[in-house]
């Protein structure tokens, strides 16, 4: 039964992937005209003054709109496949899958908010308050995705650490009842902390109407880009709004650095711990070398995937914070377009890096079917029937 369910889930995932590829091809054809205009605009802009007004960059915003929309849809499909697989196989509450499930859920909500932003831009939404509050929600979700990514890697490390101590001492070094509250606290704080950090942005922005200053040129598109080139129609920025703008960029940079360093440190410690565990047994065979190579690949893959998603946004945010004049040129436009490709694809990339490419994740649903004989499975059904009948007698 479990094997049939697993095959069915994989079949659904393959069909969704094929549909996503077809949709991407069609949308790329639609984007060609806008991208061609954008390239011609960049070539002409390099020969003229590098501080053109905002109104001359409508082709850039239009191209970013299509890129953001396509990548957001692919991210929704990717993260949704993990969620569907975990729910379909009843793996949501397992300690191995729950961190990945929460990360995929956050990625799907973040991609949905980016899709809403692209659709609002397409419908010429003039409600600046709506776009500002949507950006605040996006800020909360991407910080939650940062923390859930770190939580996922931390759960992998702690699981390996518990196995090492159990094998070394012959019994668990930490009682399971003491380990669960720590994981639950980390899960809750990964959601609560972004809400606390973005609360000042939401309150100050709506009280002082900061959305008039920062949302006018690009409306509901990506975060932290501001207008590529502010026009004369934008009013003078209030001090409180300027502080909030710098605050959002600062916490974005800080949370990114903390998450990246945490991933690197935890993966390095996991590799060292596994090597110590194997060498303590006095045997280092082919299987152990294979596992060690897998850990080494993860040590490089996890930080690389995280940096790939948010690298352009980090460079663009740092330029806006420390050298805002450098954004007013072709470099800012390139980073802006790259951000639309990479940041909006986080859900798709995470489902591949942390989910479908991991053999352990794919084999979880078949673990029960592969380790039980037909006799054991029939006994399990008999025990379940006896338990249900006894519970009914107790109720009577």
UniProtKB/TrEMBL annotation:
It is found in: Membrane. One of its GO terms (cellular component) is plasma membrane. The chain crosses the membrane at residues 12-32, 66-88, 100-121, 141-160, 185-203, 247-268, 300-322, 334-357. It comes from Pygocentrus nattereri. Gene3D superfamilies: Rhodopsin 7-helix transmembrane proteins. It is a multi-pass membrane protein. InterPro entries: GCR1-cAMP_receptor, GPCR_Rhodpsn_7TM. This is G-protein coupled receptors family 1 profile domain-containing protein. Residues 78-354 form the G-protein coupled receptors family 1 profile domain. One of its GO terms (molecular function) is G protein-coupled receptor activity. Keywords: Membrane, Transmembrane, Transmembrane helix. GO terms for biological process: adenylate cyclase-activating G protein-coupled receptor signaling pathway. PANTHER family: G PROTEIN-COUPLED RECEPTOR 157-RELATED, TRANSMEMBRANE PROTEIN 116.
């Amino acid at each position: 039964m479990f094997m049939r369910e697993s095959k069915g889930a994989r079949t659904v995932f393959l069909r969704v992937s094929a549909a996503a590829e077809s949709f991407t091809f069609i949308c790329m054809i639609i984007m060609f005209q806008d991208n061609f205009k954008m390239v011609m605009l960049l070539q002409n802009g390099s020969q003229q003054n590098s501080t053109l007004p905002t109104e001359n960059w409508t082709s850039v915003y239009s191209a970013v709109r299509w890129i953001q929309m396509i990548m957001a849809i692919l991210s929704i499909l990717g993260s949704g496949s993990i969620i569907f697989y975990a729910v379909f196989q009843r793996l949501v509450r397992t300690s191995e899958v729950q961190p990945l499930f929460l990360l995929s859920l956050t990625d799907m909500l973040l991609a949905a908010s980016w899709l809403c932003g692209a659709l609002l831009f397409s419908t010429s939404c003039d409600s600046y308050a709506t776009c500002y509050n949507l950006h605040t929600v996006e800020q909360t979700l991407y910080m939650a995705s940062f923390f859930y990514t770190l939580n996922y890697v931390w759960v992998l490390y702690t699981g390996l650490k518990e196995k090492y101590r159990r094998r070394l001492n012959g019994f668990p070094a930490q009682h399971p009842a003491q380990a669960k509250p720590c994981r639950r606290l980390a899960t809750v704080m990964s959601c609560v902390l972004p809400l606390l950090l973005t609360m000042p942005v939401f309150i100050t922005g709506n009280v002082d109407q900061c959305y008039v200053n920062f949302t006018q040129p690009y409306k509901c598109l990506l975060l932290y880009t501001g207008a590529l080139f502010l026009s004369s129609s934008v009013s003078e920025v209030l001090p409180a709004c300027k502080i909030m703008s710098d605050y959002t960029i600062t916490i974005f940079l800080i949370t990114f650095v903390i998450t990246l360093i945490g991933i690197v440190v935890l993966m390095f410690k996991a590799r060292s711990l596994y090597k110590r565990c194997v060498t303590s047994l006095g045997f280092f065979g082919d299987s152990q070398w294979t596992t060690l190579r897998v850990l080494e690949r993860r040590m490089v893959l996890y930080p690389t995937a995280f940096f790939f998603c948010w690298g352009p946004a980090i460079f663009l945010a740092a330029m806006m914070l420390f050298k805002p004049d450098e954004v007013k040129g072709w470099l800012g436009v390139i980073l802006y377009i790259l951000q639309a490709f990479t940041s909006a694809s986080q859900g798709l990339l995470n489902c591949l890096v942390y989910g479908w490419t991991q053999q352990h994740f794919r084999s979880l649903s078949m673990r029960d079917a592969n380790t039980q004989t037909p006799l054991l499975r029939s006994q399990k059904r008999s025990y379940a029937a006896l338990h249900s009948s006894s519970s009914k007698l107790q109720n009577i």
